[in-house]
Design a protein that fits this description.
heterodimer; A: about 475 residues; alpha/beta; eleven-stranded mixed β-sheet; ten-stranded mixed β-sheet; 9 helices; 23 strands; about 25% helix; about 35% strand; globular; B: about 260 residues; Rossmann fold; 10 helices; disordered C terminus
């Protein structure tokens, strides 16, 4: 069943036939599809904005879509290297708001320990997918910025979401996006008025707790940055040790003309968790996006970042760092659509893979025929620490315009022994030397973070996380 | 005797490079080791610092009476051995200050001294940087990354000044330096001469030895020290080249064969 490639300088094919695996999973996939929907039935009566016609239509359409395509499998070219079947082996179901322990000490402790939250920045917190007002900090009002729970907003002022929810989201991309839409209920809504400048990061926090049964948490977030606005949103995904959660989250972001927007994603889910995410970004003319995606946690994670550069001179910088160990599987998938002339994209995704972990990076760049004079760069350096670690890197460039500058590169390497010797020749022990090397490799991704306070707190987090990787397997 | 090398033989990938080195360096002394390309100079330097790619096939090395060859590279450094690299390594993403503070404190802990905190470290670093003409902003840059050849060599001597070794081996510290940089680096080294510190200067050319005047000079050829003398030997090599000495070494080529 395992038909992946191991790449380390050269390519080596693993065993197993694709056809066989596909045939075997056909029947079970369709069973999973219907039983998963069944699990959700009990929540349908309680979903947010149940009486809204437009929302009902959106959900119905997504539901139909899900019934058609089901959950993605390794037969799908886009999911060839990431098999999410283990996340559904013990079928998870939704958690109702009434079943959440908002007073959970574990949840509180996790929220309080978050990087960057020490300063009085606004934060909206969700526990097991549901808005937790007691843990949130929405009184830290920032002029021109409105932060609400999706569920609340659908009750209070649904017009603000009509036509926006799902606006740019291709619901057919894969079944889990459809599943999110079909049963969407809560999440964060951040609206930044035109011209507003928010200097403090806005934190969206999603905490999963340990529950009796495995469960699904499906945050649905909407961020709208008005023309000429400037803001930074940090999404945190984390949970109590032992939480058996499948997080299936969708974040829709719309950037107005000349908006400057920073997006940080810290995926640090606990060891038993599964994480599937789609961040869908639509960029207006002259807007600038800086994204930092960190993939550290979960048994298996898949993070999709789809950016459409829809207006002239829009640009995006996508930085990512995935660092995993043990048998973790991490998959980052970027899609940049150059849909307008003079748009620019610059991607740097770095991977650190220890033990027997697997890291997948797919970077798709589409340059449409009318998108002349664009620039697109992409690099994916991976550092292999573990002997059993496997790295996959797949650049996919699809170019229909002729006046373009596109570049991509990837490298897979191990710790440089000469550099190790240099560090050790200065008295630094092998463990610390290795830690420094791994951090030095990862640091580039953090360096571009602003403001400084956030860079420092996330830098410290990255240092301590990769430090545990660097030290592994060293007995000296 | 601080450093004692006796009958040292070493090879890499089965190919012999050092073929019986004998060398003794006492505290307070400065020795120059000269030799043509491929004579084994850099191998000797790297091997003494603990590079693991070389295999010692025979002989022994003691450092202050302890068996040096048994120690891993980092322990040798903490014991007080320092190698100034011919080609200092670039460490992207690792700030010079962080790297050096980690090194200094590793050495200090080993010597039973208290660790330097950020402020004390900065004060010490500032003073030593002046010694080699490095600007303070070098502390905040990644180790050697984007440094010119001269800056890298100054950085090596700066590190030496911070680590206060008992034995410093300078491997081709003069290569790639213009006259001004050479003088600055040499002055830095000279200021570190002390009665309890030994320095081994490895060089191809004599010009560095105009500035760092050695107590003893050795000529290495074919993996052995073929001639030893005073400072005059270096000048003689400069005038006459290596041929007149290595000729001796060539005629001795049968020695390692006989030894094998």
């Amino acid at each position: 069943m395992d038909h992946r490639y191991r790449r380390f300088g050269r390519e080596r094919a693993g065993g197993g036939g694709v056809g066989e695996g596909a045939a075997a999973s056909m029947g079970s996939t369709s069973d999973i599809r219907s039983s998963l929907v069944e699990r959700f039935e009990r929540s349908t009566g309680q979903l947010a904005g149940a009486r809204l016609g437009w929302l009902d239509a959106l959900r119905q359409e997504a539901r139909t879509r899900f019934d058609q395509i089901g959950v993605p499998g390794v037969r799908d070219e886009d999911w060839k290297y990431t098999n999410i079947a283990p996340a559904l082996r013990e079928l998870p179901g939704p958690v109702l708001a009434g079943e959440v322990d908002f007073a959970s000490r574990a949840a509180r402790a996790l929220v309080e320990g978050l990087p960057g939250l020490a300063e009085p920045a606004p934060a909206i917190v969700f526990v097991d997918g549901h808005f937790a007002p007691g843990l949130s900090r929405l009184d830290a009002s920032v002029r021109g910025v409105s932060i609400s729970s999706l569920r609340e907003l659908l009750g209070r002022d649904p017009d603000r979401l009509q036509g926006r929810l799902g606006k740019f989201l291709p619901s057919a991309a894969h079944g889990l996006i459809a599943l999110n839409s079909a049963f969407l209920d809560d999440g964060a809504v951040v609206e930044i008025s035109a011209g507003a400048t928010c200097n403090q990061p806005i934190h969206l926090v999603f905490v999963s707790t340990r529950r009796e049964e495995p469960f699904v948490s499906q945050p649905r977030n909407v961020i709208v940055a008005g023309d000429g606005s400037s803001a930074l949103v940090v999404e945190h995904y984390l949970g109590e040790e032992g939480a058996r959660v499948l997080t299936n989250t969708v974040t829709e972001i719309e950037l107005g003309r000349s908006a400057a927007f920073g997006h940080v994603r810290l995926q640090r889910e606990p060891a038993g968790a599964f994480h599937v995410a789609r961040v869908q970004i639509e960029q207006g003319e002259g807007s600038a996006l800086t994204s930092h995606a960190f993939g550290f946690g979960a048994a298996l994670s898949r993070t999709e970042l789809a950016v459409r550069l829809g207006g002239e001179n829009a640009e995006c910088t996508l930085h990512g760092l995935y660092a995993v160990h043990g048998k973790q599987h991490v998959d980052h998938h970027t899609m940049v659509d150059h849909a307008a002339p003079r748009t620019r994209s610059n991607q740097l995704y770095k991977g650190v893979l220890d033990d027997d972990s697997r890291g997948v990076f797919t970077g798709r760049v589409l340059v449409r025929a009318l998108a002349q004079k664009i620039k697109a760069m992409q690099t994916n350096p991976v550092l292999l620490l573990g002997d059993g670690a496997i790295a996959e890197t797949r650049p996919q460039l699809e170019i229909y315009a002729d006046d373009v500058a596109c570049n991509h590169g990837a490298s897979i390497g191990r710790i440089n022994e000469e550099a190790m010797f240099y560090l050790r020749s200065r008295g630094i022990d092998p463990r610390e030397a290795r830690r420094l090397m791994v951090y030095g490799f990862a640091a580039e991704v953090v360096e571009s973070l602003v403001p400084e306070a956030l860079r420092e707190s996330i830098g410290a987090l990255v240092a301590s996380h990769v430090g545990t990787l660097g030290a592994r397997g060293l007995l000296a | 005797m601080l450093l004692r090398i006796h009958d040292l033989h070493a090879e890499i990938d089965g190919k012999p490079i050092l073929r019986g080195i004998d060398l003794e360096v006492g505290a307070g002394e400065v020795h120059a080791v000269m030799g043509p390309n491929g004579s084994g100079k850099s191998t000797l330097a790297q091997l003494l610092a603990g590079r693991e790619v070389y295999t010692v096939t025979r002989g022994e090395v003691t450092f202050d009476g302890k068996n040096l060859l048994e120690m891993p590279a980092d322990l040798r450094a903490r014991e007080g051995l320092f190698l100034s690299f011919q080609y200092p390594i670039e460490l992207p993403g690792i700030a010079n200050s962080y790297f050096l503070k980690a090194a200094v404190n590793a050495v200090r802990r080993h010597r039973g001294l208290s660790e330097l905190d950020a402020v004390d470290f900065l004060i010490a670093a500032r003073a030593k940087m002046k010694l080699v003409g490095l600007r303070e902003d070098f502390l905040h840059r990644s180790v050697n990354e984007g440094f010119s050849g001269g800056e890298k060599k100054r950085n090596e001597i700066f590190q030496m000044a911070m680590l206060e070794p008992r034995l410093a081996i300078l491997d081709e510290t003069d290569s790639g330096l213009d006259v001004d940089a050479l003088r600055t680096v040499a002055e830095g080294v000279n200021s570190l001469r002390s009665p309890d510190r030994a320095i081994v200067v490895i060089t191809h050319y004599q010009r560095l030895l105009d500035y760092i005047v050695p107590d003893k000079t050795h000529v290495l050829a074919g993996g052995r020290i073929v001639r030893s003398g005073g400072p005059d030997l270096a000048r003689e090599v400069e005038e006459r080249g290596y041929g007149w000495i290595t000729g001796t070494a060539d005629s001795g080529e049968s020695v390692p064969v006989a030894a094998a």
